[in-house]
Amino acid sequence: LYFLPFTLYLFSDVPPGFEVYFNEPNSSGTYDPKAKENTKLDFVFYNFINSATLNQKTTIYAAFYDVDNSTAIAALNLAYSRGSAVYLICDAGDADATTTDLISFSSITIPSANKIRTLAGNEVHNMFCVIKDSSVWTGSWNPTNNYTYANNNNVVVIYSSEVAKYYEMEFSNMF
Description:
By secondary structure, the protein is an alpha/beta fold. 30% of the residues lie in helices and 20% in strands. A 7-stranded mixed β-sheet has the order 1-7-6-5-2-3-4, sandwiched between helices. A hairpin with a 3-residue loop joins strand 5 and strand 6. The protein starts with 17 loop residues before the first strand and ends with a helix. The mean pLDDT is 81.
């Protein structure tokens, strides 16, 4: 029996309607926002939110495990200050939730009725952010300093109103 060698081919180009990002944290695995090799997913997220809300009001639905990155918090706050409706779901944490987690959550200026922390044990591991009827940000990244600067993560942005509607329904069910 003879087996021919084969090569698994992956897309070399990202198809239209998608953007794909990977970060490469520094080799020490410690928080270093100045690491040159880092993609800085927090700034990519900021631009994703900013471009959607710069000249129009929209609705943003975000579901993340945690949020403590100041750039990501600024993006959500800026969208809200421009008149967009912003809804946020974060994990409630458990006994190991820190004061920093609670301060970060409270520094997001959207109305309390628009942001919830889940019940303890109901982790938010399906992390995503939706620009209503437009696009979806999803992947392994959480808007935290640890996920941005110390861990390998990925993000896929999907520009599709149909996909956005499915994620909006998922968010509605979670909220």
